[in-house]
Design goal:
Elements (H helix, E strand, L loop, with lengths): L1 H15 L3 H10 L3 E6 L2 E6 L4 H14 L2 E10 L2 E9 L4 H11 L1 E2 L3 E10 L7 E10 L2 E4 L2
Helix pairs in contact: 1-2
């Protein structure tokens, strides 16, 4: 199942317009990146450089069976957040995910399913839809 999820994740990253080397790193080495918003757009980093985040992601993937393919990092009024873009282990959900991704808002970008880990207030972590947009080859969360 994990290989099917990875293939789906690669399809999604291509759809969003992420840089090809980010996609190749996921395909060839299972490397996951995260993006952070900056004044010049999205800046890409290796998630492996954040050991605590890697631990949190692995725990969540083990608990849910989901496959995290990219993350974004935000500082918000309700806490520091790590937004995990993922592919569910339930293939039937992918069709709904694709329908959501077809709606690209001019202001907010693509609508995608995500799990948001609130690093400041873990009890406020939740799963739901967010909007992302490609910036500088990475992704940033718009809403």
């Amino acid at each position: 199942m994990r290989e099917k999820q990875k293939a789906e994740a690669i399809w999604r990253l291509k759809k969003f317009g992420v840089m090809s080397n980010i996609i190749n790193e996921l395909r060839e080495n299972d490397t996951v990146f995260y993006s952070e918003r900056s004044p010049i757009g999205g800046i890409l980093y290796w998630i492996k450089d954040q050991p605590e985040w890697v631990r949190l992601i692995k725990e969540w993937e083990t608990e849910t069976g989901c496959f995290v393919y990219h993350a974004t990092h935000e500082r918000t009024s309700f806490g520091e957040c790590l937004t995990l873009l993922y592919v569910s282990s339930n293939e039937e959900e992918w069709e709904y995910d694709h329908e959501d991704m077809e709606y690209e808002d001019d202001k907010y970008g693509f609508q995608v399913i995500a799990h948001v880990i609130n690093l400041t207030h873990p009890d406020f972590s939740e799963t739901g839809s967010v909007y992302i947009e490609e910036h500088n080859g990475g992704l940033v969360r718009m809403a």
